[in-house]
Amino acid sequence: MTRSPLAVFRFLRVFIAWWVVWAVLQALLLLWLGLEWQKAVIDSAVSNGLSAVCCLLLCYVMQFYLPQKERYWYLLFISITASSLIVLPARHILESIYPDDVAYLLLLKNSFPIRWGFALLLVICMSVICVLWYSFQEQQETEQRKNAAEALSKEAELFALRRQLQPHFLFNSLNSISALVGSRPQEARNMIQQLSDFLRGTIKKEDNPFVTLEDELQHLQLYLAIEQVRFGHRLQVQTNVEDASLGQLIPALILQPIVENAIKFGLYDTTGEVKIGINAIAHERQLLITVENPFDPETAQPRKGEGFGLSSVQRRLFLIFARTDLVSAEASGKLFTITIKIPQLLYESSDN
Amino acid sequence: MKVLIIDDEPLARMIVQEYLQDFPVLEILQECSDGFEGLKAIQQHRPDLIFLDIQMPKINGFEMLELVENPPAVIFTTAFDEYAIKAFEAHAVDYLLKPFSKDRFNKAIQKWLDSKNVPASANTTMLLEDASQSPSQKHRVVIKIGSKIKIIPVTDIRFLEAADDYVKIHTAEGSFLKNKTMNHFETILDPAHFVRCHRSYILNVQHITRIEAYEKDNHIALLKSGEQIAVSRSGYAKLKKMLDV
Fold first, then answer.
1. Starting at the edge strand that comes first in sequence, how are the strands of the sheet with B219-223 ordered?
2. Is B18 an interface residue toward A (CB < 8 Å)?
3. End position of a domain, from candidates A158, A186, A204
4. Is the CB of residue A267 less than 8 Å from the CB of residue A303?
5. Which of A105, A137, A158 is the last residue of a domain?
6. Residues A228-243: what's their mean pLDDT?
7. Per-chain mean pLDDT for chain A
8. How would you label A242-252 residue by residue, b for 16+ Cβ within 10 Å and e otherwise?
């Protein structure tokens, strides 16, 4: 339910002050026109008291009934009616207080159109303020609802992105296990363990979407161990992580798709040994992570963009930090490097 | 009978080898860890049957097969590839989806033994035609020069020229022959960049600098490299439509 502006203390004070000033001004004007101060005060009190009551009523009514955008001309109609409800009774009351004062009655009669005009202006002002106030409140409520809906869908999207898993990886890993079972059952059991831990980590639903780099690297280690069983000596991974960065926060499961890409890119674009480098440093309230893989500049060309899987990482970082400049790719010589920056400013708001 | 295993994962080769122990008639000649090794081994040993993975370093299983003359019978072993599966269903001896059971493997071998009277190369050739529709094949062309293999990204292609049973692929590094038809390339190459401007030419529009009139109805396209390509009347209409003039 929308609140009336008069329910806000600040506005109520302004409202009362306004009417006091207005009443004093009218009394002074009447004095200046030659009326005795007693009559001037009563005249001003009656007409301004009525208009204040009328404006309050108007404000109250508009809390429940707000004209549609196309029907703002209703306001004029309402204002004319309301102003008549002020000036006509006021005149009647004042006439009955001083029924025999001819000079005063004449003044009352002559100033009637001016009184009406001012009353009309006052009422129009009041109704416009009310309309603005109530529409603003309504708009704010819609905005809040929209934000809540967006937050929900964002969460759902993030969850889906986190859970992305390559079926290739899963089936090939199972095939490796199948091969190991016959001749090296202990290794097979090991790999099943690693694969299970890895999958569990992937589908884990946590309230806090952020984990420390240390946890993320631990999860990544499971993935790398499995890939190393699959590809044997061809795959080598060198991790170089600054101690200071281990405790920094990072969106859960953001590294794995990048490393997965680097491995795929490296393994399928070159023959022979593939060395993947993973480096992390803390730098000016940012966590800088680079992932390097070798590639063949002559044949890698068609790979840019699609099939690259980085778009999901980019999308996630955008949803979380509202920035598009956090992922960059660079090719120099035979080394391809992906750099991601994780701002470390979001400690508190990440819980929301 | 001679068998070859081509897969980039050592354990994947191991399981095929293990399953094959029950078939003493099948002799494993070699295990290869990528398409280059595979190609060399096929030419050297002329195997009767190969087990082939699709996703491998540098060139994939299909691209390797393309380079083999009279390819042997193929049983694919792969994890997951929706395009490939379509192709397999039509023409491959069999395809084994990893991980596969011993029973399933035995069935594949049996199927091959039963169908051995049918020449393998015919089926395999048809398979390749279908497989060439897969997206990776649209980005590059793999060719063989003597014993070397060259991978050409399609963006490097200036134009293609018909040359008897072959197609001559012209690039900045020179021209290369590939035993495919012009129609084949016309269907696989991205129509947003390549246009069949003449019976004997397919042109990469990104390499054109100018198109000039030349005798009556004919035109000539000038490439950035200075080469001149004949453009037929219908080819000129296609080019005009594509370049929006």
1. B208-213, B219-223, B228-231
2. yes
3. A158
4. no
5. A158
6. 91
7. 83
8. eeebeebbbbb
Give the per-residue pLDDT at A309: 64
Task: Write out chain B residues lying below 8 Å of A298, CB-based.
Answer: 151
Contact A299 B151 (CB under 8 A): yes
For an interface test with A, which of B6, B8, B11, B37 has the most A Cβ atoms less than 10 Å from its Cβ? B11
Q: pLDDT grade, residue A348 (50/70/90)? A: very low
Locate the chain B residue with the closest alpha carbon to A167. B80
Confidence of residue B82 (pLDDT cuts 50, 70, 90): low
Nearest CB neighbour to A167, from listed B8, B10, B80:
B80
Residue A142 sits in the same domain as residue A262: no
Query: Is residue A108 located within the same domain as residue A196?
Result: no
**What residues contact B245, with CB distance under 8 A and at least 6 apart?**
none
Which of A180, A270, A298 lies nearest to residue B57, judging by beta carbons? A270
Q: Are residues A105 and A188 in the same domain?
A: no
Q: Could B56 and A268 be called an inter-chain contact, meaning their C-beta atoms sit closer than 8 Å?
A: yes
For the record, the structure tokens of A163 come out as: 């859970």
Verify that A212 and A145 share a domain, yes or no.
Answer: no
* CB–CB contact A175 B139 (8 Å): no
The CATH number for A223's domain is 3.30.565.10
Question: Is A183 a residue whose pLDDT tops 70?
Answer: yes
Tokens of B157: 């292609």
Chain B nearest-CA distance from A316, in A, is 26
Same domain? For A249 and A193 the reply is yes
Q: Where do the domains of chain B lie, and which CATH numbers do they carry?
A: 2-136 (3.40.50.2300), 150-243 (2.40.50.1020)
Residues of B in contact with A269 (CB under 8 A): 57-58
Put simply, the answer to whether A175 touches B15 (Cβ < 8 Å) is yes
Q: What is the ipTM of this complex?
A: 0.72
Whether A66 and A174 map to the same domain: the answer is no
Q: From A235, which residue of chain B is nearest by alpha-carbon distance?
A: B9
Q: Which of A179, A271, A303 sits opposite B58 (nearest CB)?
A: A271
Decide: A231 and B55 in contact? Cβ < 8 Å: no
Q: Which residue of A has its CA nearest to B140?
A: A302
**Do A265 and A176 sit in the same domain of this protein?**
yes
Residue ranges making up the domain that contains A9: 5-158
Instruction: State how many domains chain A has.
Output: 2
Which H or E run includes A157?
helix A112-162
B36 interface with A at CB cutoff 8 Å = yes
**What type of residue sits at position A172?**
N
C-alpha span between A79 and A86 (Å, rounded): 11
Residues A60 and A75 reside in one and the same domain: yes
Judge whether residue A123 has pLDDT over 60: yes
Contacts of A45 (CB under 8 A, 6+ apart): A23
The pLDDT of B43-56, averaged and rounded, is 91
Which of the residues A166, A168, A171, A172 would you substitute to probe the B interface, choosing the one with the greatest number of B C-beta atoms within 10 Å? A172
Q: Does the beta carbon of A184 lie under 8 angstroms from any beta carbon of chain B?
A: no
Give A343's contacts (C-beta < 8 A, 6+ positions apart). Answer: A285, A286, A321, A323, A326
